[in-house]
Design brief:
The structure is a single chain. The chain is mainly beta. It has a 22-stranded antiparallel beta barrel. The longest helix has 10 residues. The chain is globular and about 80 Å long. It is found in: Cell outer membrane. InterPro entries: Beta-barrel_TonB, Beta-barrel_TonB_sf, Plug_dom, Plug_dom_sf, TonB-dep_rcpt-like, TonB_rcpt_CS, TonB_sidphr_rcpt. One of its GO terms (molecular function) is signaling receptor activity. Keywords: Cell outer membrane, Ion transport, Iron, Iron transport, Membrane, Receptor, Signal, TonB box, Transmembrane, Transmembrane beta strand, Transport.
Length: 732
């Protein structure tokens, strides 16, 4: 570890992807997971230096390809399967699509992922949903990581510059995560060191004083080629369309990969992130005191000059892979996070008088917090023979521990007056003198589980993937002075999927898994709701229409008991900023998904998807209506040929159906909604030389007005207006 920190501090930038070199022939299963191999449909042989892979062609990372076509994925089952061989719906946002759309954060990427919808709670908290329910399962390089849904430590807001791609498996993935979440599991795949020296420097400018600078360097260390490193550094700042609000982000990432022996590979890495928002706050009030809807412009805000939010996270990780002569791979991975959190703000609740602008309530808060998290993962996977056929198996054990201490300070003495709220702006308010901080959430969450999965070759065209996981979950928490302990032991999560290859291009599948999902929502008395239980079913068809063009269709159904549903107008006792929930029985989600992704023709990439997800209560009422039932997303780009080869142009559209929320209004519970809408984006990139290029991204071409949030604490938030960004990149 000492060598890593010396290099990191001396170079002060960060690095990417290294191709393992070792003699001999071995199967796909012996390729390191950390290389995140991408597999094409063709069976060919690839030889690079002394690395020889038979059976399928591999590409180390999606950034080494200019395609939207996905490769192999281990996010669903821990086995390195092609998308076609995985009995679930899997989508991959590749490096090329991230680059074309100019996506600068992991949240931006998720928002563009097929089947994923986004809504916000306030200036810094975003909620992502798939198949009707919130996504709460995340992985980093396949290592499951718990996410604090209420306290925002930036887990889903990392800069996109450190990722090669993001994989989204929709449906339950309890086999790897222990949480049989019926929405989706998201796997962030980090960049790795490249085989040869490469460096890129890029700068962005855009609307709202957008300024961004990124440096990315990858280099071998020494002459042997057995060790390589990559460093990435990013500074990103901008004002926003919201009055008084601006963001400032700083991200650093470094990784070293070394081949210690011909059979052992190790990666060491560190990530650092600091996010700062000045002018942080909630949304604007959606009602006047007389019950009529407000009609503020898109700069409307509910903040102050002194309100601020920050999170600071440092994550160090080590990933070791060892390859046995029989084709098996052993992996051990460890990650340690330290996080700091701060939020100082005034929350204005209630409803302003249309004429006097008075009447809103005030909640002053100064939060500070610390988090320490450790993730440990051991796996073994490889081939075996049984009854004259070759099969694959994987075994794993995962443990995560998340320790959190959140503290709150209130004003010392009388709080300042907040004046009025008129035309989407609040009167200036002085920052109060703060009293001493007292703990409000002191918790320790420990999750562990062991799993086993096998892919049985029942016949040449028929494969069964079956697995089981045994999980433990324990929370010890003092929440606003109330000590509570929750634990669940020996929870069994079975998984089964059957894949049939009709021919080399078409396959069909069915899959089933049971659900066990803890939930971080509370009843009116402040107690956590019991875990969700249920079942998830899926049937689908996958087709390779061309060498790099895939069609995926899926029909799904999940059944859930104990699901938390927000109680309109109700808060947790004594907590004006915490929504209260109740458990529901017999909730179901039924839906359909279609995705066409890949290369339509040389230079022409496409990612198109349609999703229908209908979550309903036992009584047949719509649930989770703050997320759309239907979505359609399309983005395509084309690189011209011959004399126009330097030019790439593209565009896309994002459409979603109506969303609404039953929220508290002046006259009681009132429904507020955002009708269906579409947003159109365009891009163009021109390469002046092999090293220098410029790119324009025009988002929200027609300047569509829409709500990003409706009715959360009776407030709203406008989506971003039209914006233009220019990027310049130089490759060394």
């Amino acid at each position: 570890m000492t060598l890593f920190f010396v290099v990191w501090r001396s170079i002060n930038m960060f690095l990417d992807s290294f191709t393992l070199r070792r003699a001999g022939r071995f199967s796909l299963l012996t390729v390191p997971l950390l290389l995140s191999a991408s597999v094409s449909a063709e069976g060919v042989q690839l030889e690079q230096d002394t690395l020889v892979v038979t059976g399928r062609q591999l590409s180390a990372d999606s950034e080494q390809r200019d395609s939207y076509a996905p490769g192999a994925s281990t996010t669903a089952t821990s086995l390195p399967l092609s998308i076609k061989d995985t009995p679930q719906a899997v989508s991959v946002i590749t490096h090329q699509q991230i680059k074309d759309q100019g996506l600068v954060s992991s949240g931006d990427i998720l928002h563009r992922a097929p089947g994923v919808s986004m809504t916000r709670s306030d200036s810094n908290r975003f909620n992502y949903s798939a198949r009707g329910y919130a996504i709460s399962t995340y992985q980093f390089d396949g290592l499951m990581t718990p996410i604090q849904g209420y306290w925002n430590f930036g887990d889903t807001d990392w800069d996109s510059a450190i990722y090669d791609r993001i994989e989204v498996v929709r449906g339950a993935t309890g086999l790897l995560t222990g949480a049989g979440d019926p929405s989706a599991s998201v796997n962030f795949i980090r960049k790795k060191p490249l085989p040869d020296f490469a460096a890129r420097l890029s700068g962005d400018i855009g609307r709202w004083d957008k300024r961004r600078l990124m440096a990315d360097v990858s280099t071998p260390l020494g002459d042997s080629g057995q060790t390589a490193a990559r460093f990435v550094a990013v500074r990103d700042s901008q004002d926003t369309h919201v009055d008084k609000m601006e963001h400032d982000k700083e991200t650093y990432y470094g990784v070293i990969n070394s081949q210690l022996t011909p059979a052992t590979d190790v990666s060491l890495g560190v990530e650092y992130q600091h996010n700062q928002t000045d002018g942080a706050g909630g949304g604007f009030p959606m009602f006047y005191a007389d019950g009529s809807l407000t009609d503020f412009d898109r700069s409307a805000a509910n903040n102050t000059d002194w309100s601020r939010f920050y999170n600071e996270t440092t994550r160090a990780f080590i990933d070791v892979n060892h390859f046995l002569d029989n084709g098996w791979r052993l992996r051990g991975a460890y990650s340690h996070d330290d996080g700091q959190y701060g939020l100082t703000y005034l929350f204005r609740g209630g409803f302003p008088d249309r004429n006097t602008s008075e009447g809103m309530s005030a909640y002053f808060a100064n939060y500070q917090g610390e988090r320490s998290r450790q993730d440990l993962h051991f796996t073994a996977e490889g081939p075996y023979e049984l009854f004259g056929r070759e099969h694959e198996a994987a075994f794993g054990w995962v443990r995560t521990q998340d320790d959190l201490d959140m503290r709150l300070a209130a004003p010392a003495g009388a709080a300042p007056g907040i004046g009025g709220y008129f035309d989407g702006k609040g009167d200036p308010v002085a920052e109060p003198e703060w009293g001493a901080h007292a703990s409000v959430d002191d918790s320790s969450l420990v999750q562990s589980g062991a799993y086993a999965v096998t892919r049985l070759s029942l016949a040449d065209r028929l494969h069964l993937i079956a697995g089981v996981r045994l999980s433990d979950w324990e929370l010890d928490q003092v929440y606003f002075g109330d000590h509570r302990q929750y634990s669940y032991s020996n929870e069994l999560t079975p998984y089964a999927g059957l894949v049939y290859d009709f021919d080399d291009r078409f396959s069909g599948y069915v899959s089933y898994t049971e659900l066990f999902q803890t939930q971080n929502v509370r009843s009116t008395d402040g107690s956590l709701l019991d875990p969700i239980t249920g079942r998830n079913y899926e049937i689908g068809l996958k087709a390779s229409l061309a060498e790099e063009l895939d069609l995926n269709l899926a029909v799904f159904r999940s059944e859930q008991d104990g699901l938390g549903e927000a109680i309109p107008g109700q808060i947790v006792n004594g907590r004006p900023d915490t929504q209260a929930y109740r458990a529901t029985e017999g909730a179901t989600v039924e839906g359909f998904e279609a995705e066409l992704v890949g290369r339509l023709a040389p230079g022409w990439n496409l990612n198109a998807s349609y999703t229908l997800a209908s979550p309903k209560s036992a009584e047949g009422d719509r649930m989770n209506a703050s997320h759309p039932r239907q979505q359609a997303k399309l983005f395509t780009s084309y690189q011209f040929a011959d004399d126009w080869r330097a030019l790439r142009m593209g565009g896309g559209v994002r459409w979603q159906s109506e969303i609404y929320r039953d929220t508290r209004g002046p006259a009681g519970t009132t429904r507020v909604s955002q009708g269906s809408y579409a947003v159109v984006d365009l891009m163009a990139r021109y390469e002046f030389s092999p090293d220098l290029s410029a790119q324009l991204n025009l988002n929200n071409l027609f300047d569509k007005e829409y709500y990003d949030q409706v009715g959360f604490y009776s407030q709203g938030w406008w989506g971003a207006p039209r914006s233009l960004r220019l990027s310049l990149s130089y490759d060394f």
